[in-house]
Design brief:
Largest interface: A-B, 54 and 72 residues
Helix content of chain A: 10-25%
Shape of chain A: extended
Oligomer: heterodimer
Mean pLDDT of chain B: 93
Number of strands of chain B: 28
Structural class of chain B: alpha+beta
Distance between the termini of chain A: 38 Å
Structural class of chain A: mainly alpha
Largest sheet of chain A: none
Radius of gyration of chain B: 26 Å
Distance between the termini of chain B: 34 Å
């Protein structure tokens, strides 16, 4: 059981032990790309975690990096540059990234044009 | 237990794949249960805070889908549809180990388990520090419901955490993505009306404003026409937003609005209430000191009750009262039903396309200022009444004719119920 003693919650600061190891080299990046589905051959993957093992790497590391860069709107170089490392280290969901759905998003229909209207914004 | 869960997928699960987006519908029933697992509370927030945040997260999905979510603290764990828990490193028998503070903060499993990395600094919605537990929870619930990661600015399903934006709500595209799996929200309304308010702008000019309301059972929504959605956080209880009127299943609302008169009436059963817009409450008594509610028959002689619905025609200064297959036109100045009424609904409001007509028992007759038209609602459908502009464009159209029916949810979007236990949040 984790115990906390300070009234001001300063001991809530997480000890370095629990810090995630930053992704800073090629090996760590390869693990990241594999963990989140970028190295897997693009098959029909589940939108959340399945208990079966992922398809083993079928594509090159450079190709996996390119895919990741494209999906994250980064310059697609296929190289592990700084911007790519920064993106890899951002807080994220642990569910793998399935194939990138087509960008076309369903457009909002035109709203009625009548100028009259009282449109409160925030959630009450 | 976990081994059995994998072998015997729960009866309500469904693996309906949906085209190319990688989204798959995960549940076939409408009411889903959830629970914050007892042995997996976070050490950073009170248990009540955690449960409230999850309750809100589920409500946010319920507000845009036909799904309802209910916290279940009693049923056997295996019967609870979605279980949530916090853990660090190796946790809850999960094969996917958390990595400590930073990077991976949570994950969701196909069978409905959601795990949060308690090494992360999760914070309540009121804080702009750390990682919003509400936002992460809404994201992971989206996975459990079947949505994949979506690389689109503004989507809640983006894989990376986006620090708190001004308003964190499910946008149009996320709503359509989940509705592609679970359908859009449908259902009949008790009443629909536009509420008129008069205000003065900075130049002292009188401005007329309207807000659209839909009522069903004991709750209601404010509908934002220009945003094609309901107000965030709706529905809420009638009891909360309206004072002194019946708190459920109202039959009709009418606003008599002329140069001299501004009278708003709610009808239920054989009674009616008059509402004071300025004081935002029902009047206690009328001008003669008689207390509300009053009998419909006294104030509106010749009008039957209980009513199906009613609406006021400002141009003709008539209230149209509807009951079963008849309609009554009531002259507000002479305080009596016109001689040529009652008429059959099909006669007073003829179908433009033969037999495409509600015929009887309409739910609501609604004049919309956003569309400058009257609509008859019945069940999931509406019929639009021919207005002056239609007549100018097509002079052959019968006066007060009804255009063929269309689906309400295709014109007024995402008007969704939530579970009764989450009505008051």
């Amino acid at each position: 059981e984790v115990l906390f003693h300070s009234r001001d919650r300063s001991d809530l600061e997480l000890s370095p032990l629990h810090q995630a190891r930053p992704i800073a080299d090629l090996q760590a990046a390869q693990r990241f790309l594999s963990r989140y589905g970028w190295s897997a051959v693009s098959s029909a993957r589940s939108p959340n975690l399945k208990r079966t093992t992922e398809a083993t790497a079928g594509i090159t590391l450079a190709e996996a990096i390119r895919r990741f860069q494209k999906a994250n709107a980064l310059p697609v170089s296929g190289k592990l540059d700084t911007a790519t490392l920064v993106a890899m280290n951002k807080p994220r969901c642990g569910v793998p990234d399935t194939q990138v759905p087509p960008q076309a998003s369903s457009s909002t229909p035109p709203a009625p044009s009548t100028r009259l209207g009282l449109q409160p914004r925030a959630r009450p | 237990k976990r081994f059995l869960q994998m072998l015997l997928p729960r009866l309500n699960r469904q693996q309906e794949d949906s085209s190319d987006s990688g989204a798959t519908r995960a549940f076939s029933k409408k009411t889903l249960t959830w629970r914050l697992v007892g042995e997996a509370y976070s050490s950073q927030l009170s248990v009540d805070e955690q449960r409230y945040i999850f309750k809100l997260a589920f409500r946010m999905w319920s507000e845009v889908t036909p799904l309802n979510f209910q916290e279940d603290l009693i049923a056997p764990g295996a019967m609870v549809d979605i279980k949530l828990g916090f853990g660090r490193g190796r946790h809850l028998g999960c094969t996917r180990v958390f990595d400590g503070s930073g990077q991976e903060f949570a994950h969701a499993w196909r069978l409905g388990d959601i795990h949060f990395d308690d090494d992360e600094h999760f914070t309540p919605p009121t804080s702009d520090m750390g990682i919003s537990l509400l936002k992460v929870a809404v994201h992971e619930i989206g996975h459990v419901l079947g949505l994949p990661h979506i690389y689109r600015t503004g989507s809640i399903m983006q894989p990376n955490y986006i620090p708190q934006e001004p308003t964190f709500e499910l946008d149009w595209s996320d709503r359509k993505a989940i509705q592609k799996l679970y359908g859009s929200c449908e259902g009949s309304f008790d009443i629909a009306f536009d509420w008129i308010r008069k205000e003065r702008n900075q130049y002292g000019e009188v401005m007329v404003r309207f807000s659209t309301y839909f009522f069903r059972n004991s709750w209601y929504w404010l509908y934002e026409n220009r945003n094609n959605r309901t107000r965030y956080g709706d529905p809420i209880q009638i009891l909360t937003g309206w004072h002194g009127i019946p708190t459920q299943n109202i039959d009709a609302f009418v606003h008599i609005w002329t140069g001299r008169r501004d009278e708003r009436y709610f009808f239920k059963g054989n009674q009616y209430w008059r509402y004071d817009s300025d004081k935002d409450q029902a009047l206690l008594e009328d001008d003669q000191g008689r207390s509300y509610p009053r009998l419909i028959s006294e104030r509106f002689p010749g009008i039957p009750c209980p009513l199906d619905t009613a609406f006021y025609d400002r141009r003709q200064q008539l209230i149209y009262f509807f009951k079963e297959s008849f309609v009554f036109a009531f002259d507000v100045n002479r305080n009596q039903v016109l001689n040529s009424f009652p008429k059959k609904l099909t006669e007073a409001f003829p179908a433009i396309t033969p037999r495409n007509h509600p015929f009887r028992n309409i739910d609501s007759a609604y004049y919309s200022y956003a569309h400058n038209s009257i609509f008859f609602f019945k069940g999931n459908a509406y019929w639009k009444v021919v207005n002056e502009k239609d007549k100018q464009q097509n002079s052959w159209l019968p006066s007060n004719g009804l255009f063929p029916k269309k689906n309400i949810s295709r014109k007024w979007f995402d008007v969704c119920d939530v579970h009764i236990s989450t009505l008051n949040m």
